[in-house]
């Protein structure tokens, strides 16, 4: 790629509008040696003697970075806008005789004192100095002031490029706009011309800094102010700079594109000078140029003396969110050159900045006639992967506590933010959001509130000591069939920023977490992520949680508290982030909730897992006529009324998503002192509640896990209001939510009080007490009736005795067996089948 | 505006250019016509609509394709199967001193690049196929005239006269040719217009499995698919899977694929462009001038004959119900459900709920019973509805079939699966042939697609990198031995045939009336009075109090049935009487299940 262009050439004529000064650096952009380019120019100038147009500076040769074969755009615009004959395209449309149509243009320009790019209001000098000013003087907003004596942002960048011998300089279009909106406007409207000047200015600067720097540095513009969609590209966008989002679906093989060809005479062995591609063709010499030889048709291409540049054609397809209903995705071709080749792989979501071009299609390869059709493509200037999962994952934990300004690819303009802020100021925003969440699911308002909290999420915290607290809220919905749990799940899945939906029945442990597989080609072991890792920073919805295999479920323990997945197999030991909120739903064990059994028995999940859910909702189908009536009315209205009218003051999904992602990324509420106090007070009270006077039972009401849950929920509630501080009422509401969920899920059916023990161990305090009583009375009976070493007694007989003694509570054989088993471990009795013997 | 100084039929491009020149001549800049019409459409609208010449325009099908001249006006009826994006073309260019246009044509092959003045315009490319599952009788209207005209094409005049003859003849033939019955879609497309018979014995049909028809969609080749180029329309106007009639200029892409070699650096070689592929297949191309969305009723021939009076509706309903009862072996309840099922149509969508669907699962059908009832039923459905299709659900079929549409990036085309159906299609799924076996991943995916279609009326389109759900409106009839668990239909009904009667002879008039009835009644709008609403709500609450298993799904189907019941009587409001009928029906059904 070495370029033999002497830097001095640039130096000599830093600002002179001389043809060669302009053309050589540009000509070099594709790393063809300047020698060739300038030679070509000389040819060009030789030609241009006839056409004055060529004397004007912005008329250099091809801007080679766009020089595709036929890519010279045929005159697409009408007369007033036909900008033939300036940078970026050859003076003539692709296949006509040279120069003829340009004459009037040249005249115009000769007369005008400042040199304008033909057909535009671009003055070359002006643009040039504007760019120079920009590169030299632009400073970031934050660095302004204090470091005023330091170099500007891009001067630093240029130095860096020189240090690392880079080949391009990324220029943020936002910076251009901030510095000089006019320049930005010109750049977007006439990218070919302005970028050519940009490159020249840049090369001037580079050679000033380091005259010996050999590589050619290109400008790459990215981050345009506005981006369009593929669908909206229309003829008026041709030759404009556009920015698009999409998904790479295909990449062609790398095409070596010939830039310079060398021919050798078969007769005398004479090597021709390199011939540069001219508008996509190489004019093969028909005659040996050597004076002595002059053999006809003897020239043959010498491949290894030719110069090639990489080229690749990439196909970009619309992402699903841009496709309107009843449409199929559009695609567009991208042309990648040099370093951009292989920058995106199929499946990548990218944002591309480039120039939209149209080229005419020839009837046949040898024909000059073209069809009336145009092929369109985007000459790629810059490609950015918008899917940042990897980038975030690298320094994930650090980002967590700080603000994540760059995390989301959703861009918010001022007006939108203003709208969202206004929404957040509504007094009933909490209720409104609740209503907007799955509006067609009736009732279940408190469940929806909980889900809302989950969507907004709390703050993750990482202490300097290394301990971290998750900010994700996990929710379990347990309920009767037909209570629209799955619908809620589906809805959340669609709404959440990165949701994965799996069904417990079909998920295995590896499918959920991560697994190691062997690459069939390279035989290397590779780590593949499962649903939980994939939904990192999102919500993982697991349907039919109860039907999940034991093994798979146990994998969730780590994920739900530590938020990581550890893998140790096949020579790979890894810990992957899985900072995901889990939303699971399960049916009670008998498919219908049995109120006589405890929640644990109903859900039949290990208590260790259960305690990791912040909110456990029991959705019970109560035979309540009022609810039924609501349901009936709801469905009738669904069928007979205009569904649009039925649900008015709810937010549409788009607004809801925007609101959500804005809040998640920009609002990081902190606990106020008042709220912290309330939290402490409430927690103490919760713990004391089981202890009220008159109750002899000791019931554990709340665990430290709950206080974490409470903090998370209150933070989420503050986020809902776009508030930076957690107020007291947030905490109160969090307590209410927890209680609503717990009252349903942790009501001890024997006592009617909240009993966290039920969730943490599976046995309620009163149940435990009952069992203890049973053991005591059984022991008493055995002590009474049985002699040491005497005859044994049948279980049923003991049961009879027990029933006689205590009429207060029912005793089952099953309970008795448990009690006997306890006694057996104490060494009081020995059991043989149904016979109990005192030892 | 302009007299018929040019032949819109034979030389539409002439008419277009003339109007263009006129418009430019009157001082308009061609740039003013970016994305706009300059008056050419008015000419054609006048010619086609006001002068009623639409029927003279030949319909594009496999027959007419052989003789239709390029650059003449043709019609094409089809479903939008794929969208190939937008295409830029040199819309207007300066040729010498005057402006010329390329709109509605492809012809400009002169080196236009020499002209500096070119306006680039864009047009949309749609790939259209014949409506999937289109039945012979619905197709016949379009095709009949063409077959006759195909004999002679030397003289445009004579041709036109001939066509007119065909028109008149066509209407005489009409009652008979409707009822030509064939078994497989491919055979269906073979025209048998030559043998019109006034009525057809249903029993004459080959006793073939009702659903054994080949599932292969007619591929490009045996029936014409058409590349339609649409100009200046809003994107929302033309949607995937909509059925349209396009009238426009016919061209055929007869250019061979440009040779790749030697042109290696060209953009085309990176990927074969979409067009390149189509060109290779010589796909007919239509530059659409006028398009019109078609509803089911547009496929009926006799629609204007019947006046929509209450009396007629009642009579038709009675006779159709009788017919269905007979078909189902004298099972009146099943016939009633079948009628409601045939009238169902999705009229609203709220989030994931498709309101108005009524899929029906007829159970207690063994393989043997199916050979009797199933055949009759399938044939009858084919005669009643314009678009029907059927799927034999076997393990092998599930494992191999391509049900969901899938994007083929090699060809840059959407491969239409069996489930890419037009709105209002009817799909029969025969589960009786299902035996135990192992499903592979394709099979599981297919089963899931079917389930989604039954439950949500949505089909997932596979675009490799992501999937997109497209709303569908398909009437689903499941035939099974026991309750189908793969396909959870709204209504499960055990059939109780009591009597195997010989299939009756159906008169063409009756068939016509039934078709009209089914097509018209389902499009009626519907409301509910507040008194009835209260009654309904009370009933629903009572039902739920009595049986906790009844949930919103059951409520929904009950209400849908109520709606359909009153529609079946041609009523637009739900009356107490019809509501009672629905409840009675449900009671009978419940008795059967228990």
UniProtKB/TrEMBL annotation, chain A:
SMART domains recorded: MCM (SM00350)
Annotated InterPro entries: MCM (IPR031327), MCM_4 (IPR008047), MCM_CS (IPR018525), MCM_dom (IPR001208), MCM_lid (IPR041562), MCM_N (IPR027925), MCM_OB (IPR033762), NA-bd_OB-fold (IPR012340)
Top EC group: hydrolase
Catalysed reactions listed for this entry: ATP + H2O = ADP + phosphate + H(+)
Biased composition (Low complexity): 14-25
Segments of this protein annotated with the region Disordered: 1-110
Subcellular location: Nucleus
PROSITE patterns: MCM_1, MCM_2
Key word Aminoacyl-tRNA synthetase present: no
Membrane spanning residue stretches: none
Molecular function GO terms recorded: ATP binding; hydrolase activity; single-stranded DNA binding; single-stranded DNA helicase activity
Keywords for the protein's UniProt record, in alphabetical order: ATP-binding, DNA replication, DNA-binding, Helicase, Hydrolase, Nucleotide-binding, Nucleus
Recorded family membership: Belongs to the MCM family.
Known role: Acts as component of the MCM2-7 complex (MCM complex) which is the replicative helicase essential for 'once per cell cycle' DNA replication initiation and elongation in eukaryotic cells. The active ATPase sites in the MCM2-7 ring are formed through the interaction surfaces of two neighboring subunits such that a critical structure of a conserved arginine finger motif is provided in trans relative to the ATP-binding site of the Walker A box of the adjacent subunit. The six ATPase active sites, however, are likely to contribute differentially to the complex helicase activity. Probable component of the MCM2-7 complex (MCM complex) that may function as a DNA helicase and which is essential to undergo a single round of replication initiation and elongation per cell cycle in eukaryotic cells.
Assembly and binders: Component of the minichromosome maintenance (MCM) complex, a heterotetramer composed of MCM2, MCM3, MCM4, MCM5, MCM6 and MCM7. Interacts with ETG1.
Protein name: DNA replication licensing factor MCM4
Organism per entry: Linum tenue
UniProtKB/TrEMBL annotation, chain B:
Keyword NADP included in the entry's annotation: no
Short name of one Pfam family: MCM_bind
Lineage, uppermost ranks: Eukaryota, Viridiplantae, Streptophyta, Embryophyta, Tracheophyta
Subcellular location: Nucleus
Gene Ontology cellular component list: nucleus
Full protein name: Mini-chromosome maintenance complex-binding protein
Main location: nucleus
Keywords: Nucleus
């Amino acid at each position: 790629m070495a370029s033999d262009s002497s830097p001095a050439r640039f130096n000599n004529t830093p600002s002179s509008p001389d043809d060669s000064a302009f053309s050589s650096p540009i000509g070099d952009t594709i790393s063809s040696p300047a020698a060739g380019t300038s030679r070509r120019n000389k040819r060009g100038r030789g030609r241009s003697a006839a056409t004055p147009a060529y004397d004007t500076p912005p008329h250099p040769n091809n801007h080679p970075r766009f020089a595709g074969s036929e890519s010279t755009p045929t005159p697409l615009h009408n007369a007033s806008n036909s900008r033939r004959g300036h940078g970026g395209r050859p003076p003539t449309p692709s296949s006509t005789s040279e120069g003829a149509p340009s004459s009037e243009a040249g005249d115009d320009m000769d007369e005008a004192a400042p040199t304008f790019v033909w057909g535009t209001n671009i003055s070359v000098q002006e643009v040039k100095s504007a760019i120079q000013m920009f590169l030299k003087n632009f400073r970031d907003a934050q660095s302004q002031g204090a470091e005023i004596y330091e170099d500007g942002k891009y001067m630093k960048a240029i130095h860096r490029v020189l240090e690392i011998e880079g080949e391009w300089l990324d220029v943020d279009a936002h910076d251009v706009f901030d510095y000089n909106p006019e320049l930005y406007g010109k750049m977007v409207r006439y990218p070919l011309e302005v970028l050519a000047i940009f490159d020249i200015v840049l090369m001037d600067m580079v050679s000033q800094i380091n005259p010996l720097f050999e590589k050619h540095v290109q400008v790459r513009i990215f981050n345009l102010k506005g981006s369009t969609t593929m669908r909206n590209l229309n003829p008026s966008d041709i030759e404009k700079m556009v920015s698009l989002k999409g998904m790479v679906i295909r990449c062609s093989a790398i095409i070596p594109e010939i830039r310079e060809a060398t021919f050798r005479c078969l007769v005398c062995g004479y090597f021709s000078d390199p011939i540069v591609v001219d508008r996509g063709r190489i004019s093969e010499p028909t005659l040996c140029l050597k004076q002595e030889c002059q053999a006809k048709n003897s020239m043959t291409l010498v491949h290894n003396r030719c110069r090639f540049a990489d080229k690749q054609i990439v196909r970009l397809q619309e992402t699903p969110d841009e496709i309107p209903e009843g449409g199929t995705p559009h695609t567009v071709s991208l042309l990648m050159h040099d370093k951009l080749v292989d920058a995106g792989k199929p499946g990548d979501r990218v944002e591309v900045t480039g120039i939209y071009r149209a080229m005419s299609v020839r009837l046949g390869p040898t024909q000059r006639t073209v069809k009336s059709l145009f092929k369109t493509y985007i000459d790629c200037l810059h490609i950015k992967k918008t899917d940042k999962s990897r980038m975030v994952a690298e320094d994930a934990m650090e980002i967590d506590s700080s603000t994540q300004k760059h995390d989301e690819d959703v861009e918010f303009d001022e007006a939108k933010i203003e709208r969202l802020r206004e929404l957040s100021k509504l007094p009933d925003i909490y209720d409104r959001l609740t209503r907007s969440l799955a509006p067609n699911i009736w009732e279940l308002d408190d469940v929806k509130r909980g889900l809302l909290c989950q969507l907004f999420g709390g703050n993750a915290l990482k202490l300097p000591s290394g301990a971290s607290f998750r900010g994700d809220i996990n929710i379990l919905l347990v309920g009767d069939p037909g209570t629209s749990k799955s619908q809620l799940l589906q809805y959340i899945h669609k709404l959440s920023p990165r949701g994965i939906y799996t069904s417990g029945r079909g998920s295995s442990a590896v499918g959920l977490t991560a697994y190691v597989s062997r690459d069939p080609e390279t035989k290397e072991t590779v780590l593949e992520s499962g649903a939980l890792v994939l939904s990192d920073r999102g919500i993982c919805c697991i349907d039919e949680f109860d039907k999940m295999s034991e093994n798979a479920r146990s994998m969730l323990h780590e994920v739900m508290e530590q938020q990581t997945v550890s893998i140790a197999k096949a020579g790979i030991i890894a810990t992957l982030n899985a900072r995901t909120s889990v939303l699971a739903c399960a049916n009670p064990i008998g498919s219908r909730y049995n109120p006589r059994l405890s929640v644990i028995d109903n859900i039949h999940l290990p208590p260790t897992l259960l305690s990791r859910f912040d909110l456990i909702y029991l959705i019970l189908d109560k035979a309540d006529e009022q609810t039924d009536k609501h349901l009936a009315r709801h469905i009738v209205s669904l069928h007979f009324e205009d569904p649009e009218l039925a649900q008015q003051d709810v937010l549409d999904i788009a607004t809801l998503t925007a609101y959500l992602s804005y809040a998640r990324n920009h609002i990081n509420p902190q606990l106020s002192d008042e709220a912290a106090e309330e939290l402490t007070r409430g927690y103490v009270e919760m713990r004391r509640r089981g202890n009220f006077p008159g109750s002899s039972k000791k019931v554990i009401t709340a665990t430290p896990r709950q206080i974490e849950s409470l903090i998370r929920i209150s933070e989420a509630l503050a986020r809902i209001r776009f508030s930076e501080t957690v107020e007291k009422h947030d905490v109160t509401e969090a307590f209410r939510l927890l209680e609503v969920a717990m009252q349903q899920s942790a009501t001890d059916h024997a006592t009617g009080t909240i009993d966290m023990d039920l969730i943490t161990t599976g046995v309620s305090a009163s149940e435990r007490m009952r069992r203890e009583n049973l053991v005591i009375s059984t022991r008493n009976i055995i002590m009474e009736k049985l002699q040491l070493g005497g005859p044994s007694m049948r279980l049923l007989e003991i049961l009879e005795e027990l029933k006689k003694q205590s009429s207060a509570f029912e005793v089952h054989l099953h309970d008795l067996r448990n009690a006997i088993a306890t006694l057996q471990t104490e060494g009081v009795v020995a059991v043989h089948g149904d016979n109990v013997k005192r030892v | 505006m302009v007299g018929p100084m040019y032949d819109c039929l034979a030389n539409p491009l002439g008419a277009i250019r003339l109007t263009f020149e006129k418009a430019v001549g009157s001082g308009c800049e061609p740039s003013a016509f970016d994305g706009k019409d300059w008056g050419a459409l008015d000419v054609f609208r006048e010619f086609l609509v006001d002068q009623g010449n639409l029927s003279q325009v030949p319909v594009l099908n496999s027959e007419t394709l052989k003789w239709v001249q390029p650059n003449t006006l043709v019609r094409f009826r089809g479903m939008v199967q794929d969208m190939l994006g937008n295409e830029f073309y040199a819309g207007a260019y300066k040729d010498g001193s005057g402006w010329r246009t390329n709109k509605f044509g492809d012809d400009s092959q002169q080196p236009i690049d020499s002209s500096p003045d070119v306006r680039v315009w864009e047009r949309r490319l749609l790939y259209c196929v014949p409506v999937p599952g289109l039945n012979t009788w619905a197709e016949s209207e379009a095709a009949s005239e063409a077959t006759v005209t195909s004999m002679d094409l030397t003289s445009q005049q004579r041709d036109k006269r001939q066509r007119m003859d065909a028109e008149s003849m066509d209407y005489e033939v009409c009652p008979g040719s409707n009822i030509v019955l064939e078994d497989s879609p491919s055979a269906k497309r073979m025209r048998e217009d030559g043998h019109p018979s006034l009525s057809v014995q249903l029993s004459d049909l080959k006793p073939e499995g009702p659903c054994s028809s080949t599932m292969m969609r007619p591929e490009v080749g045996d029936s014409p698919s058409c590349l339609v180029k649409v100009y200046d329309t809003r994107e929302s106007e033309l949607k995937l899977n909509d059925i349209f009639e396009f009238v426009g200029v016919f061209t055929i892409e007869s250019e061979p694929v440009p040779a790749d070699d030697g042109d290696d650096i060209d953009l085309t070689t990176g990927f074969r462009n979409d067009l390149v592929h189509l060109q290779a297949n010589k796909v007919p191309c239509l530059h659409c001038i006028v398009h019109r969305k078609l509803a089911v009723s547009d496929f009926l021939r006799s629609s204007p004959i019947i006046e929509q009076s209450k009396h007629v509706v009642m009579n038709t309903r009675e006779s159709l119900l009788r017919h269905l009862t007979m078909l189902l072996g004298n099972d009146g309840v099943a016939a009633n459900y079948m009628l409601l099922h045939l009238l169902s149509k999705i009229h609203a969508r709220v989030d994931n709920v498709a309101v108005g669907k009524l899929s029906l699962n007829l159970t207690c059908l063994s393989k043997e019973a199916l050979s009797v009832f199933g055949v009759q039923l399938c044939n009858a459905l084919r005669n009643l509805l314009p678009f029907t299709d059927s799927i034999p659900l076997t393990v092998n079929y599930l494992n191999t079939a391509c049900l969901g549409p899938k994007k083929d990036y090699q060809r840059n085309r959407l491969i239409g699966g069996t489930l890419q159906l037009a709105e209002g299609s009817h799909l029969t799924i025969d589960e009786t042939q299902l035996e135990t076996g192992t499903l592979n991943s394709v099979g599981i995916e297919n089963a899931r697609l079917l389930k989604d279609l039954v439950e949500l009326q949505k089909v997932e389109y596979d675009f490799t990198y992501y999937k997109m759900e497209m709303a569908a409106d398909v009437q689903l009839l499941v035939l099974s031995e026991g309750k189908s668990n793969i396909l959870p239909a709204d209504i499960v009904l055990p059939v109780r045939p009591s009597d195997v009667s010989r299939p009756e002879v159906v008169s063409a008039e009756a068939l016509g009336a039934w078709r009209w009835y089914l097509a018209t009644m389902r499009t009626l709008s519907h409301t509910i009075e507040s008194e009835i609403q209260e009654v309904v709500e009370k009933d629903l609450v009572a039902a739920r109090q009595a049986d906790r298993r009844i949930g919103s799904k059951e409520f929904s189907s009950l209400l849908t049935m109520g709606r359909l019941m009153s529609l079946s009587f041609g009523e637009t409001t739900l009356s107490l009487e019809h509501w009672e009928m629905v409840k009675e029906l449900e009671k009978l059904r419940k008795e059967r299940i228990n």
